[in-house]
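We treat protein structure as text, and this decision shapes the records that our systems exchange. We quote a single record here, exactly as it is kept in our systems:
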Amino acid sequence: MIPKEKMMKGSDLLSISDLTPDEVWGIINRAIRMKKRKAMSSILAGKTLALLFEKPSLRTKVSFDVAMYQLGGHSVYLSHAEVGLGSREPIADVARTLSRYVDIIAARTFAHATVESLAKYATVPVINALSDGEHPCQALADIMTVYEKKGKLEGLTVAYIGDGNNVASSLMLTCVLAGANFRIASPEGYELPDKIVRLGRRFAQKNSAEIGLLKNPKEAVKGADVVYTDVWTSMGQESEAEKRRKAFAGYQVDARLMKLAAKDAIFMHDLPAHHGEEVAPGIIDSKQSVVFDQAENRLHAQKAILAEILGK
C-alpha cells in the first residue's frame, strides 16, 4: 500500500536523507498525477525561483525553468560569472540577499558544502540541484521512472555500474527508502563514500531492502530489473580523464552485460552520456532504454518537489 503524501512545505532538499519514505512516495505520486494532467497550474502564482548555477546545465536548468512556468511561477537564472559564489561575494551574503527577492533557491554547485552554506544562511528553502555529494532531484526522477515502467518498487533490484559518485549516492538512498534493492559495481578507489553506505544500510534495514557493494559488473547485473550507469569523468574531473578510462575498463554497459539482467530489464543513464565509454554505442537507442523518459521525468519530479515545498 502506497502512503499518502506528506507535505514538505518550507523545507530544504539538500540530500535524499532529508526525506522520509512517505515523502519519497508523495513526490512520486504527485509527479505522476501532474504528468498525466498535462495542464498549466497557478499553484505557484507569484512565486520566484532563483537558479544559482556554478556548473553549466541542460536538463536541470530547462526542467526547473519550465516547471516554474507550468506551475504559474517565474525563475531567474544566475550563472557563476554573474554571482561568483565565495569569490566575488561570500556565500552567506548571496543567500541572505536572494532571500529578500525570491521564494526558493535551486543551487547547482561543485561542493556540497556550498549548498549547505546557502541553506544555513538563506531564509527561503534551498534545493540541491547537484553537488559533488548528491543529486537528489535526479534520483527522484529516476525512481519515478522505474515505478512507471515496473508498476512497483518494493523488491526490485537496481544495478548501478561505475563510479560511486553523487548520482549513485542519491540513487542508492532513494532506492532503499522506497524498498528497492541496490547493487553497485565499482573499481577499487571509486566506491561509494563510507558515510553514504552507512546511511543507506540503516535505511535498507528499516525498509526491507538490500545493498550489494561489488567489484564485478556481471555479478551486479545478474537478474537485475534496472541497469544504470553514469559517466566515468564528471565536470571538474577532466584532468583525471585518462586515469579514469584505465580504471573503468571492463565497466562498460554493453549488449552482453544487459543479457545478464532480467529479460524485461530497463536501461537508465542520467545524461550527458559518453557513447563508447560507460555505455556502448546503440544501448541508449535500444528497446530496453528508458533514458529519454527518464530525462523527461526531471520536469515532472521537479514540479512535484516545488509544489510540495512551496504550494498548498
The radius of gyration is 19 Å. The chain has two domains: 16-134+297-310, 138-294. Confidence is low (pLDDT under 50) at residues 1-6.
